[in-house]
Amino acid sequence: MANAPQNSRLPVAGLLALAMTGFIAILTETMPGGGVAGGALLATAGLASFAWVLLGLLCIALVLAWKAKAHGFTQGPSNKTETPIERSSDERAIICK
């Protein structure tokens, strides 16, 4: 393997698989916690409390999404003549494999 290119970057498919694995792990660990919290809420405060708790969670999610908007959805270049950074042909070949 002396002729193999030395590249420390993961391919896009590898990054997607890694992200999906982490997402599934988080989902499978938090869903039982939500069931326990919902059961405790139902046992202590009754069914009518679910609407208020969900309204509070919705408000928290709205605030988080509003605050993250500036970081996650940035505006692209305003000058239409600007081009994105060009990649070399070697870099494109590594990404496409």
Textual characterization of the structure:
The chain has 97 residues and is mainly alpha-helical. Helix content is 68%, strand content 0%. It is built from three helices and no strands. The protein has helices at 12-45, 49-72, 89-96. The longest helix has 34 residues, at 12-45. The chain is flat. The two termini are 17 Å apart.
Tell me the number of strands: 0
- How many DSSP H or I helices? 3
Q: Report the span from N to C terminus.
A: 17 Å
Helix content: 55-70%
Q: Quaternary state, please? A: single chain
How does the overall form come out from the CA principal axes? flat
**What is the structural class?**
mainly alpha
- Poorly predicted runs are none
What's the gyration radius in Å?
23 Å
Largest sheet: none
- What's the average pLDDT? 79
Task: Report the β-strand fraction as a percent range.
Answer: under 5%
H/E series? HHH
In short:
It is built from 3 helices and no strands.
Topology at a glance:
Blueprint: H1 12-45, H2 49-72, H3 89-96
Please supply descriptive tags for the structure shown above.
97 residues; flat; single chain; mainly alpha; 3 helices
